[in-house]
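User: Hi! I have a protein structure encoded as tokens and I'd like to know what sequence might fold into it. I'm fairly new to this, so please keep things simple.
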């Protein structure tokens, strides 16, 4: 149950951030911003549920996995240039998430 909630928080956060970024850049896509608010609310409520069953010292670092996924999707979906420095940061976050899962 704990990892399912982490997945919900991460997935909703990624969707929210991508919709916000894409909606703001492209303009005219008004539906993307309200939809991002729905995902933001889902992320918040999933995070509060996660805090009921897991320690804060687990929940916050585990949900940082969204940064890794967002870095990957920033290059693929948003066509941003992701520098080696950002990739190395994403790798460090991945290692940290792995370590807290052990």
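Assistant: Happy to help. Inverse folding works backwards from shape to sequence: for each of the 102 positions I chose a residue that suits the local structure. Here it is:
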């Amino acid at each position: 149950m704990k990892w399912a909630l982490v997945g919900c928080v991460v997935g909703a956060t990624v969707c929210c951030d991508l919709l916000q970024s894409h909606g703001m850049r492209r303009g005219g896509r008004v539906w993307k911003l309200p939809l991002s608010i729905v995902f933001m609310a889902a992320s918040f409520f999933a995070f509060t549920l996660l805090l009921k069953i897991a320690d804060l010292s687990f929940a916050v670092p585990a949900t940082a996995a969204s940064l890794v996924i967002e870095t990957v999707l920033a290059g693929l979906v948003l066509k941003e240039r992701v520098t080696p420095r950002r990739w190395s940061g994403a790798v460090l976050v991945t290692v940290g998430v792995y370590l807290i899962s052990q």
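A useful reference point when you look it over: The radius of gyration is 14 Å. Feel free to ask if any position seems puzzling.
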